[in-house]
Amino acid sequence: MNIMLFHSTYGLRPAVHAAAERLRAAGHEVVVPDLFEGRVFDTVEEGMAFNEELGRDEILKRAILAAAPHSARGLVYAGFSLGASVAQQLALGDEKARGLLLLHGTSDVPEGASVDDLPVQLHVADPDAFETHDWLTAWYLRMQRAGADIEVHRYPGAGHLYTDPELPDYDEESAERTWATALAFLESI
């Protein structure tokens, strides 16, 4: 499977490279673009400030440019938090998208979005201040109306970016369950 993996608002950190290596070890081709052009951040606040300074349109433009040379092969879009929201936007706009793997994040679903049984898997902490229950319920219903085939996996007690071992949110048990489930999902596509 060809996977386009987007980083979180922290930037392209070692955990993203480790995730890409895990996916490659399972036989997938993985591209990991650096949407922040080398900038990484120690706190979510610093990352979010840079994200706002850069602007959503610029981030999406960089993501589209990174994906364009690979999209003809049919990509699975994937990402962490901010990167998940970027992956979702690209997958919903790419008729050749093969799947969508969302780790710790979602995005608005545009009115009129339409996909043909796009396989979607979401992994999220429960509770998660960035992905509240009300938001996720509305997101699920909008994605379902758009035609996505959705699985949602919640991890009680985990922090927002629980798969990143360098962050305080890290939860080893939840992270390992996430990766086992995500790899099975990718094999099923």
What does this structure look like?
This protein has helices spanning 14-25, 44-54, 56-71, 82-93, 133-146, 172-188; strands at 2-6, 29-31, 75-80, 99-103, 119-126, 149-156. The model has no long low-confidence stretch (mean pLDDT 97). It is α/β, with parallel strands linked by helices and 189 residues long. The protein has a single domain (2-188), classed as 3-Layer(aba) Sandwich (Rossmann fold). The chain contains six helices and six strands; from the N terminus they run E-H-E-H-H-E-H-E-E-H-E-H. A six-stranded parallel β-sheet has the order 2-1-3-4-5-6, with helices on both faces. The longest helix is centred in the last third of the chain and has 17 residues, at 172-188.
Which terms summarize this structure?
189 residues; alpha/beta; Rossmann fold; 6 strands; globular
Task: Give a short synopsis of this structure.
The protein has 189 residues and is α/β, with parallel strands linked by helices. Helices cover 43% and strands 19% of the residues.
Beta-strand residue fraction: 15-25%
What distance lies between the first and last C-alpha atoms, to the nearest angstrom?
8 Å
Let me know the largest β-sheet.
6 strands, parallel
| CATH architecture annotation name | 3-Layer(aba) Sandwich
CATH topology: Rossmann fold
Secondary-structure class: alpha/beta
Question: What count of structural domains?
Answer: 1
Specify the number of helices: 6
* Sheet with the most strands: spatial strand order: 2-1-3-4-5-6
| The named CATH superfamily | Alpha/Beta hydrolase fold, catalytic domain
Count the beta strands.
6
Shape label: globular
Q: What is the helix fraction of residues, given as a range?
A: 40-55%
Low-confidence stretches: none
CATH class division:
Alpha Beta
